[in-house]
Structures are given as C-alpha cells and as structure tokens.
Amino acid sequence: MAQLVKLLDYVSRYENDLSRYPTQYIRLKNSQWKRMKTQWEHGADLSEWRHVPEEEEQAEEGKWYSPLFRLFGNRKGRLEEVKPIEAEKDRQEDVEVLDFNPNIIYHPKNVEQLRKLYLDQLFHFQLKWASSTMLERSNLDPGFMRDSLLRGFTQRLPDSYLLFYYPILKVKKAPVELDILLITPIECLCITVLEKEDAAAFIGEGDRFWTKKYGDEESKVLNPLIGLNRMEKIVSGIFSAQDIDFPIKKLIISRNGYIDYPGVPFDTTVIDRRMYEEWFASLQKSTVPMKFNQFKAAQSILDIGQTTAVSRLFEEQNEQGQPDTTE
Question: Residue 322 has what DSSP assignment?
C-alpha cells in the first residue's frame, strides 16, 4: 500500500517525523497481516479481536494465537538515546498511533477475502494517520472513504511510494492546491486526473479549453495542462531551492475516459482507459526500496504544506464543559 503522506491541508503523522513513520507503517502493515492470517488459518473468531497490552502479550509469547494487535517492541536501542520525557512522549504516541483495531463485519471464506478485509481496514487507518496526530485533528471529509482513486493508489501500489493527494501548499504566503504527487523511490510523478462520465472522450485542441464528447453532447473543459504545468513548476522550484536533484514527470490520466491529444508535449505522458491498467501494473512491479533522495523530496514539500487542524485538548475541554486555559 502506498503511504498517504499528505491529504489536502489536513494535519498528518508524517509531518512530525518523515524519517520514522514510513518504516513504522511498513512494520505495522506486515506484522499485523501475518498475525491476522495466522489466526484466521487456525479458526480464530476474528470478530473478537482486541488490543492487548504488551505485558499480557509477553506472557503469551510463543503461542500461535499471540495477540494480533500488539504494539511494536520498546525499540530499546533508540529510546536509550533520548531523554526520559521524550521516550515517554514517544511511547504514548506509539500507543495512540499504532492501536490499529479493525471493525470485522464478516468472516472471510478464503485468503483473498481476508486480504481485502485487511486492506480495507488498513485504508481507514491510513486516513486517520493522514488527518490526525496525538495532539491535533483535522475534520476528515467522509467522501474520502468512498474515493476509489485514492483507495486504488493506496491499496495497490508498493509501500515505498509516498502519496500527496491534492495537497495545499503555502507558496509565497498564498495557499495553492495541487493535484496528485506520487513520490516513488526514483522520481516524482505530477498527476492530473481527467474523469467525467464513463467512456467520455476528451479532445485536446486549444490552449485554454478542451472539448469533451459524451454521446451526442459536447462541452468545454479546462485544459488539464494548465494545472499540470503549474504543479510541475512549483515542485521543480521547491526541489531547486533545496538543491534536490530528483526527476519529475508529468502525467494526465483517465481511468474511464478516452483522451485524444495529437499535440501532447514531449515532457508529458497521457494515460487513458486503453492503457491505464498496463501503466498501473508497471508501477506495481517496482521493488526498489525507499531512497534518501525520495525522503528529501517529500520532506521539502511537507515543509511548505498548509495545515488546518484543531487541538484535541481544546475539543476535550469543550466536551467536558471546562474553560479554555491556554491563553
């Protein structure tokens, strides 16, 4: 599953420590899947899964039914390097962040159903990571739960891919919303999506507008290259300012439509429904691990991301009817 690093202007776990959360996410995903599959294979009642404190888990160590949702080890080597108060904060955040408790609504009959169930629940968990931290929370639009493009990118792409989904950046003190940035270990893909009705045809013919044909109807749509070129220019400027040498590619994609654009620029790739699955499959085949330059590129974008969130402490005070004493 590609990692959802930034969603709109929501607060994100990855903003706290980009060097830490990607590897933590991969460990969580892989270890929990193994436990889930083992319990299912041994006939466990998955509807009764629960989080078990680490001390209880250690008592059960060595048994096949080791609790599915245990937290990771105490990471002794790293914690010894920080102050006690920092270690405690880190531990509390791990408890809050890694308490992944799926809502099991049916018993899967085969491993394919089991995996789909797991990935669906993990997708919801990713949305939580992309819209909250231990101290802050953004108001998540429930529509993202049903966003098939977002779900497809996160569930079907490799763990080493970092996804920025319509991020809002602060460029020269002004908020600018980009389209999709997919930062792979070897390049940054700037992606503009062109989708309307199923099997609609888009004809690129003008500088400002393209023509959309659907049945007997014709209408104008904004030339997607306008936003795509702007996005590439912004990202390129960010990388240049940070002296980051990282390739950038521009793509216009449509999962359900046709794109006819004879004059496509040499630095832009057009992917429509005729080749979308083949292109997507090529992304899935990547086995390249995460790279240092990839982290630098992602961090440079996170550094100027706009964040809109509310304090969880403030919300709790309001819910309990307590006065705000943070002035």
Answer: P
Alpha helices per DSSP H over the chain? 13-16, 21-41, 54-59, 76-79, 84-98, 111-129, 148-156, 224-241, 276-284, 292-302, 312-320
Residue-wise DSSP of 213-231: EETTEEEEEE-HHHHHHHH
Query: Strand 217-222 to strand 209-214: parallel, antiparallel, or no bridges (unpaired)?
Result: antiparallel
For 23, other C-beta atoms within 10 Å of its C-beta total 11
* Model confidence pTM above 0.85: no
Identify residue 78 by its one-letter amino acid code: R
Contact 258, 200 (CB under 8 A): yes
The answer to whether the beta carbons of residues 82 and 139 sit under 8 Å apart is no
pLDDT tens, 60-79?
A: 333 333 333 333 333 333 33
Residue 320 has pLDDT above 50, yes or no: yes
How far is CA 77 from its chain centroid? 29
Query: What tokens does 28 get?
Result: 């969580």
**Mode of pairing for the β-strands spanning 3-7 and 168-171:** unpaired
Q: Report the alpha-carbon distance of residue 143 to residue 96 in Å, rounded.
A: 24
Instruction: Give the 3-state DSSP-derived string for 129-169, with helices as H, strands as E and coil as C.
Output: HCCECCCEECCCCHHHHHCHHHHHHHHHCCCCCEEEECCEE
Distance CA 83, CA 61 (A): 30
pLDDT band at 318 (very low <50, low <70, confident <90, very high): low
d(CA 268, CA 253): 11
